[in-house]
Design goal:
The chain is of the alpha+beta class. The chain has a single domain (about 20-135), classed as Glutaredoxin (3-Layer(aba) Sandwich), CATH 3.40.30.10. The protein is about 40% helix and about 20% strand. The protein is built from four helices and four strands. It has a four-stranded mixed β-sheet with strand order 2-1-3-4, covered by helices on one side. A hairpin with a 2-residue loop joins strand 3 and strand 4. The radius of gyration is 16 Å and the shape is globular. It starts with a helix and ends with a helix.
Length: about 140
């Protein structure tokens, strides 16, 4: 009985990873990766002032929001900070250092990568809105 339960849980976990937010009706997946560090004052500002409204936004529920939080902004590339399923993003962009950083991924393709909090309102959030609109049924 325990094997069946463990197997069912494993299958559920695999399905949730493969079919995250934004995929139920359209098959598309929109992901936002936010790279932060404990010693980054700009990250702390974004997390205090911009993240709460983002979490309450209309589009948030349609986006797989992933946070990579490193100990220091000078070294964010260590595997221990990056979940295994998104390390390919770090490797593709050659991310080694520097925070805050935002990466928008749609259907497994990196569509936008920006460094700094200034890009949030001007580029990142609008790109997320466009990507979500494309994923919603008409």
């Amino acid at each position: 009985m325990r094997r069946l339960t463990a197997g069912a849980l494993l299958l559920l976990g695999v399905l949730l990873c493969a079919y995250g937010p934004g995929t139920a009706e359209t098959g598309r997946r929109v992901m936002l990766i936010y790279v932060s560090a404990w010693d980054c004052v700009y990250c702390a500002q974004w997390e205090r002032f911009s993240q709460p409204p983002w979490e309450k936004s209309e589009i948030r529920q349609d986006i797989d929001f992933r946070i990579v939080k490193a100990a220091a902004f000078r070294s964010v590339d260590d595997d221990r900070y990056w979940p295994r399923d998104i390390r390919w993003v770090r490797d593709a962009l050659k991310i080694r250092r520097g925070t805050p950083r935002f990466v928008v991924v749609v259907d497994g393709t990196i569509v936008l990568h920006r460094f700094g909090t200034g890009a949030w309102d001007q580029e990142i959030y609008p790109a997320l809105e466009r990507a979500v609109l494309k994923t919603r049924p008409e």
